[in-house]
Structures are given as C-alpha cells and as structure tokens.
Description:
The protein is built from 13 helices and 13 strands. With about 300 residues, it is of the alpha/beta class. It has one domain (about 10-275): Alpha-Beta Complex (Spore Coat Polysaccharide Biosynthesis Protein SpsA, Chain A), CATH 3.90.550.10.
Amino acid sequence: MREENKKIKHAVVPAAGRGTRFLPATKAVPKEMLPVVDKPAIEYVAEEATSAGLTDLLIITSSAKHALEDHFDAQPELEMALANSGKETILASINRYQELARMHTVRQGHPKGLGHAVYQAAQHVGNQPFAVLLPDDLFHPEDPILEKMIAVQEKLGGSVVALLEVTPEQATAYGSASVNELSPADLGIEAVPAGDLFELTDVVEKPAIENVLSKYATVGRYVFDPKIFEILETLPAGRGGEIQLTDAFRKLIDVPKEEGGGVYGVVVRGRRFDTGDKLGYLQAQVELGLEHPELGAAFREYLVENQQRLIK
Length: 312
Ligand code: G1P
C-alpha cells in the first residue's frame, strides 16, 4: 500500500563519513560537531529539518560518532550547575535540542557509500516519503529550500532533489542532472517561483567534464518516495565502488508515477556552504559570523578596522 499525500515527518541525516577532507580536525571529533560560529554544524541541519515541519530526525552514524548523540541529549549535571549559577541564557542554549525534531540514531556498520547509509533508515521510516539532509551542505535559511521541496512532493508525489547552478568544472564534483522545466503556477505550487521547478530526465554521479548533463547539480537535500529503499536493497556499487544515492534516484526516474516514480528538482536560491571542505567551512564562519545577532556587529568592526592588514 502506498501512503501518498501523508505529511512528511522523517528527516534522515547520513553522518557516518570519516571526514577525510577535514583531517586532522576530524581525527577525534566528528566533522558534524565542528562549530560554525557558535554551534555545531549538525545543529543547523536539525534546525532546518524542524522548521520545515519534520518531527523525527534519524542520524546515520558510525562507531566514532558518540558526540552527535550526546549533543542532542540531556546533561543533568551541567544543566544544574548553570541553573545554580544563574546562567540562564547559556542554559537555554544547551537545552534548545528539546525544541528540535526528536533525535534517533542507527549505525551504518560498514561504510559502503551514501546510498547504503540511506538504506539503513528503511526500518525506521517505513512506507512513507521522507527527507534526506546531507550535513556537509549548509543551506542558509534565507531560502527555505527543503520546505519548497516538501511542497512539491506533497503536490506531485515522486521524489524531489535540490538543484544548484554550477559551472561545468564544478559539476564534476556533484550529481549532474538533465532536466525539463515545469510551471509551478500551472501545477498549483505557490511555494516555488517560475523558472525554479524541473523534472529530471537523467542524472549521473560526478561525471567527467565531457559528460556533464547541464548547469544543474543535484546537492544535499532530497525528498524521497519510499520506493527508493526497494531500489537500494539490490543496487550494485557504482562510482568509487560505493552504493551511490544518485544511482538509486536515477532509477526512480524510470519508475511509473503510480509506483512512486518521477524525480523533480527545485533550484536553490540561497547561499550554500560546503562545511565538509576547509575553504567552504571558513566561508561559512565569516558570512554567518557577520550575521550573528550578538557577535556580528563586533566582528564586522574588527574586519573593517583591520582590512588593510588582513587583505593586502
Ligand atoms: C554527495 C552526493 C552528490 C552530491 C554531493 C553534494 O557527494 O553523492 O551527488 O552532489 O554530495 O551535495 P559527496 O560530496 O559526499 O562526495
């Protein structure tokens, strides 16, 4: 039985990766726990999922990722100490996890790729559409991309992926999609502006530059029909010997609509930072630091005052 048009509630966050791009920082600390300004990267993802209306967060972890569970858990001794010393604001900051989607974890065991990681969510999610958020991709809330994608899925069914406009050189580091434009107004999708909604006709993971399909890369936000689990169950390893999520949703393009097929794309219009990359992480620190309600003004002043010396 398909369970279409049901409110999407599950967010799946694959966080079992080793963080190789960010060594040595990630030798003993999960990359998702590295702070962006004043909170760990994973908290931005949890906030995004919660504000898109998702109430259940499943993090796919590995044995080295205890800190992720601890971050979203109570700490009675610390809470008591902060309360007793009247540090109410700090206390509120460590208790914010209670307002976020309820957190669960499952371990991936063997690191066999992103598709394999998402497959670990099958039991927990069951037979209903769900979202996947890659924690390396930090999307600025100025564009509620996940909310828009959920609106598309609720209207059209099938699956939805975030699309980023990239150069052909950049496209080789992502999934590359070929697309047909759709009219959101004709389809009754108010959340998505004209020019930003597409149907995917093909997708390939990290192609060589001569095989790039278009200027659209598929990036770290997905809303999937549960049919993807059936595909992942038997999907052979693809690029790099890994079970690729991109290969799985490539197959969804050919599945009939009434069986959960069809893949749509929504263009990302806000800023995106790759916080799993050292340079992307620095960019996020600077831009989000400048916007921080308490630190922003002083940080801006510091940068302006020292501009000559800092940027020669
Ligand atoms: C993953 C996906 C890829 C996607 C990218 C960025 O690759 O496999 O399709 O474009 O994330 O969101 P990774 O960067 O983890 O190698």
